[in-house]
Design brief:
The chain has helices at residues 2-28, 33-58, 66-94, and strands spanning 101-113, 130-137, 140-146, 159-166, 172-174. The protein is α+β, with helices and mostly antiparallel strands.
Length: 178
């Protein structure tokens, strides 16, 4: 029984890690990325504290040692803080498929980046494998990244159109296709 439980727990950990790997590009390209992380981490902390306190109070009459109670409290708190941002992001863009709306934005700049895990060879000139678009929308400055350039010929101050989607919880992102 313990071996089966460990295998299921390991499978759950790999499932969460794999889902984060798929979902993280969406999370980091939300236009309100700082609001998203602030709200979901606070929500995860509140949920974790509520669950952990409830579990601790539920087991109050039992004769369990303090270490096992603290372990349970920490496990519930940490798992809630890790899972709530993932669940909010998934439900934001998977539950409600609103079409992308073309929005006029003011182009600021587009920065090519080369990200190499192993460093660059000095004799070779690296090519860009990521492009960071910086633009103004609704009088706020935003930044999103993609594997290819959005507007290679645009100049600073030009008005360009981006397909922007709004999710279930109100977080916006730039859609790949309209």
């Amino acid at each position: 029984m313990n071996n089966l439980l460990l295998i299921l727990l390991a499978g759950l950990v790999f499932l969460v890690l794999g889902t984060y790997a798929v979902e993280l590009p969406f999370m980091m390209n939300y236009l309100e990325v700082s609001d998203f992380w602030r709200l979901t981490l606070l929500l995860g902390t509140g949920t974790g504290l509520t669950l952990a306190t409830w579990a601790t109070l539920r087991d109050r009459g039992k004769n369990r040692d303090i270490v096992s109670r603290m372990r349970q409290f920490a496990a519930l708190l940490i798992s809630s803080v890790l899972l709530v941002p993932l669940l909010v992001s998934i439900t934001n863009h998977w539950l409600l498929q609103r079409p992308a709306v073309p929005q006029a934005v003011v182009f600021e700049t587009e920065l090519p980046r080369n990200t190499s895990r192993f460093g660059n060879i000095p004799q070779q000139h690296p090519t860009a494998d990521q492009y960071i678009l910086i633009f103004v929308w609704n009088n706020r400055l935003y930044r999103v990244s993609r594997d290819h350039p959005y507007f290679p010929t645009a100049q600073t101050g030009d008005t360009v159109t981006l397909p922007i989607r709004q999710g279930r919880w109100g977080y916006h992102w730039v859609a790949e296709t309209p």
